[in-house]
Write a structure and sequence with these properties.
single chain; alpha/beta; Rossmann fold; globular
Length: 271
């Protein structure tokens, strides 16, 4: 498998990570109620594809560490619904320069494919790139993408720090950049903002410390020429939208590991 940053990853020649014939996990009533309250509607085989994805995720989790949530009802709420809370931002996005073409979305540190894969399933016109550094997770993502027939998804194996410096394929190439459970916002900003176009959005799904993390990330966001728009509290978390105002300074992102070891603006809590 190539380690070159920004190159599509090719699955290794190993045994399957999940059983592709597994039955679809059926959506819980709590999930359907939450989607109804949020005016999230589904078309065609959206729910069936989401259910197959969860079945694959749950099965593969026995072999590689993808999620601590394995109860089917909880998976629908904590994984699928939480991912789909980004829909209003993604579906309504328009480029500030008025140019046409499909919306492009990069999911940084996607892990088992969240929130990128659920968004790709329900928004087939959005071009989704899943960025993940761990080889086994990349194998899983590639296999799931093929099994679900997601023509609008590509999987890339690279560290964010490396891909973020790739001006040919990734740096400032995406309309939207998403991330979930990757790290404190000051660190996360350095790993995500460089990918966004000027005028693009970073959409970070955060937890209970979202407000504190926004304050802690003030220096980082200023250095990266970005600022936080109004956060949106959802039943499963807080969405922090970050608008990229100008091009990212050349020095960012720094080398692999540095954003975590030494966040812009000082040492932060990581709990």
């Amino acid at each position: 498998m190539s380690d070159a940053p920004g190159r599509p990853a090719e699955p290794e020649d190993r045994g399957p990570l999940f059983d592709a014939t597994l039955s679809t996990l059926q959506p819980s009533q709590a999930f359907l109620d939450a989607c109804g309250d949020a005016a999230i509607a589904f078309e065609g085989d959206d729910l069936a594809r989401l259910g197959r994805y969860l079945a694959f995720l749950r099965d593969a989790n026995a072999k590689i560490n993808l999620t601590t949530i394995v109860d089917p009802d909880e998976m629908w709420l904590r994984h699928i619904y939480d991912s789909l809370t980004l829909l209003p931002f993604v579906a309504s996005y328009e480029r500030e320069d008025g140019t046409d073409g499909p919306v492009t979305l990069l999911d940084v540190g996607t892990g088992g494919g969240l929130p990128g894969l659920p968004l790709a399933i329900v928004l087939p016109d959005v071009r989704v790139t899943l960025l993940e550094a761990t080889g086994k997770k990349v194998r899983f993502l590639s296999a799931v993408t093929a099994a679900l027939g997601l023509a609008n998804v590509r999987v890339v194996q690279a560290r964010a720090e490396d891909a973020g410096r790739d001006r040919v394929e990734h740096r400032e190439r995406y309309d939207l950049v998403t991330s979930r459970a990757v790290g404190p916002l000051a660190t996360l900003a350095e790993l995500t903002v460089p990918f966004a176009r000027v005028g693009g959005l970073v959409l970070a799904i955060k937890g209970e410390r979202a407000d504190a993390e926004i304050v802690e990330a003030k220096a980082a966001l200023h250095a990266l020429h970005a600022h936080v728009r109004e956060p949106l509290r959802t039943p499963t978390g807080t969405i922090v939208p970050i608008l990229k105002q100008r091009s990212t300074p050349k020095m960012y992102p720094r080398r692999a590991g540095e954003p975590k070891r030494s966040p812009i603006g000082g040492r932060l809590r990581d709990d």
